[in-house]
Amino acid sequence: MNEANADDVVDRLGRWASGRGPLYLLLAARLRALIDDGVLPPGLPLPPDRTLAGRLAVGRGTVVAAYDLLQQQGRVVRRQGSGTRVAALDLPATRSTDGVEANPLLLHILHPPDGVRLLTCAAPDEPPPELAQAYAEAIEHLPGMRDLGYQPAGNPALLAAVAAYYCDRGLPTTTREIIVTTGAQQALTLLAGLLVSPGDTVLTESPTYPGAIEVFRHAAAVVRPMTVDPPGLAAAPRERPTLVYTVPTARNPTGSVMDAGTRRRLAAFAAEHDVPLIEDEVCAELCFDGRTPAPVAAYARGEQVITISSLSKAVWGGLRIGWIRASAPLISRLARLRAVHDLGGEVVGQLAAAALLARLEDIRRARVRTLRARHDHLCAELRAHLPSWSFEPAQGGQTIWVRLPRGEAGSFAQVALRHGVAVPPGRSFDPLGGHEDHLRLHFLLPRAELSQAVRALAAAWRAYDGTERPASRHTLIV
Questions:
Q1: What pTM did the predictor assign?
Q2: Which PROSITE patterns has this protein been placed in (predicted)?
Q3: Cα(331)–Cα(88) distance, rounded to whole angstroms?
């Protein structure tokens, strides 16, 4: 099994070590579940004992005992010289065996709550009071509605509100240039389905939002990193990209904000090479200086720049309302594609979103004030308890990008998990699996909980750094 496949197995294990009992039993139980669910299909080679032990930051004996138990239960076959493979099993007709990829961050959403403090999923866990009021106003509109409710492009009230939002930001927009989606994730999925064919090259920044990487991979694209400085843009045409994806404002995971000159260069690049460019503005309203920069589309000379956004970060992740702003012909094609998938979004939520956009400035101001305070607190705690870790303070958003002084973040994440904190390693944010010495931390928790999380991370780091030599990803823990 190659290194990438070993990483895939580790990603699918999720929070395997967060239960009670010996580690080998916890590991065996999680592997057995993955095998029984068809995520690890029959015949798949599993990582060698030493390799998996190194990835999980456990002793080799833990992996050997887990594999031996799985062999006794008929889930794996172990042979001297040929390693360990998933055994052939009698499968229910409905069981999937296609080895579906799962983003490790999404696995934490799918995993049931287990007392682990999650620094993985960067989304607000408490809706603002304005949300309930917006829904109450939306429900008041229902008695007078005379509509089937199937609106693939979106509810007219929300389309008008989103168009007005962009006009207020200096980007003239009509309702024909907007389509409402079930969050920004569906926006990405629709665009990839329409614009990307198997084998196409998609360029992204690195690090970048891992959900986008997974969408493009699901479309069978080749995802490659690019830089948005002048040398990087000059080299990009050699990749012959079909699509470019960027997060210019409050970038996930670094929290950086792209300057106006770089936005102009990106827009000019898209126009010159006639390449669609997706700018993800999900966190655009969360800049700590209180200003929301102009979208890249505001600098565009043509129709190549496509803007996506949602209310999941500024308001609440449970409000699954997002949108795409693009040329009217592209929006029309997207609406037809959307109709095939689900006939359109839920109407009451869209009416509530229209009401929320009218109050967005007040919501944004309160949210940024909270985020900035929690960001500063997290940075102070890291400097106090983990002074060897390095990071740049964020300019906005919800996350910071931390570099470890040694070791490999994936292995450290396993140790952190056993100390009650789940953190995402850097390779999840890199299309080529790089940034192995980085991890992302969010600052969405109250300050007391952030302090507890940092102290747990500090304890995990002492355990990890005390037993691990300064290492590459191939260092083994035995």
A1: 0.83
A2: HTH_GNTR (PS50949)
A3: 47
For the chain, the domains span: 3-99, 130-358, 362-467
**What digits encode the pLDDT tens for the residues 396-415?**
999 999 999 999 999 999 99
What is the distance between the alpha carbons of residues 2 and 64, in angstroms, rounded to a whole number? 19
Please name the residue that has the structure tokens 């985020």.
Answer: 371
- Distance in angstroms between the alpha carbons of the first and the last residue of the chain: 19
Beta-carbon neighbour count of residue 101 at 10 Å? 13
Q: Are 56 and 10 in contact (CB under 8 A)?
A: yes
Cβ neighbours around 61 below 10 Å, total: 13
Q: Cα-flanking dihedrals φ and ψ of residue 397, to 5°?
A: 85, -145
Phi/psi of residue 386, nearest 5 degrees = -135, 60
> What is the pLDDT averaged over residues 413-437?
93
The domain made up of 130-358 has a fold known as: Aspartate Aminotransferase; domain 2 (3.40.640)
Q: Where are the alpha helices (DSSP H) in 250-305?
A: 260-273
The answer to whether residues 125 and 442 touch, using CB atoms and an 8 Å cutoff, is: no
Q: Quick one: pLDDT at residue 111? A: 66
Strands 305-310 and 277-280: parallel
Measuring CA to CA, which residue among 209, 328, 331 is closest to residue 280? 209
CATH of domain 362-467: 3.90.1150.10
Instruction: Give the burial class of 208: count Cβ atoms within 10 A of its Cβ; 0-12 exposed, 13-18 middle, 19 or more buried.
Output: buried
For residue 19, which amino acid is it?
G
Contact indicator for 105, 409 with CB cutoff of 8 Å: no
9: phi then psi, degrees, rounded to nearest 5: -60, -45
Question: What span, in angstroms and rounded, lies between the C-alpha atoms of 360 and 320?
Answer: 16
For residue 407, give every residue at least 6 positions away whose Cβ sits within 8 Å of its Cβ, in sequence order, or none.
Answer: 437, 464, 465, 468, 470, 471, 475
